[in-house]
Design a protein that fits this description.
4 strands
């Protein structure tokens, strides 16, 4: 029997979780819409793969491909062309990025994010910003 696993790709800039009151009511309400949209992208990809939400302990790997700032574009693109990984080590925090997608995927990819028993995540620059989440059974 093969292991149940999926790789979900969310196009666009990775989104960090915003706490209510941290950035004002408008930002929090906007985040609900962003979370819904990310969840719907995941739902379409789960259905296309013929999968239902994971049950039991899971492994989740989050890869955040961050947009390149204009003032560093030539430097970073040159390094990417050379095959280097260029790590993103400024805000937003990796943990806030992960939290956003954990919450967006609740009830869609897994029943609840408390099922994640093995977790990893990293941020790096890329020409095409996106979030790649790989989820599998343990």
């Amino acid at each position: 029997m093969s292991e149940k696993k999926i790789k979900i790709t969310i196009p666009g800039d990775p989104i960090p979780w915003a706490r209510p009151g941290q950035s004002g009511k408008t930002r929090f309400n906007d985040q609900k819409a962003e979370m819904y949209a990310a969840g719907m992208v995941a739902k379409v990809q789960m259905r296309a793969a013929g999968l239902t939400p994971f049950v039991g302990p899971i492994r989740a790997q989050f890869q955040f491909l961050m947009p390149i700032p204009k003032y560093r574009k030539n430097e970073i693109v040159g390094r990417l062309i050379a095959g280097d990984i260029v790590w993103h080590f400024v805000k937003p925090d990796t943990s806030n990025l992960i939290k956003f997608y954990e919450d967006a995927f609740n009830g869609i990819v897994f029943g609840d994010d408390c099922q994640i028993a093995d977790l990893s995540g990293w941020k790096q620059y890329d020409v095409i910003p996106e979030t790649i989440v790989t989820v599998g059974e343990l």
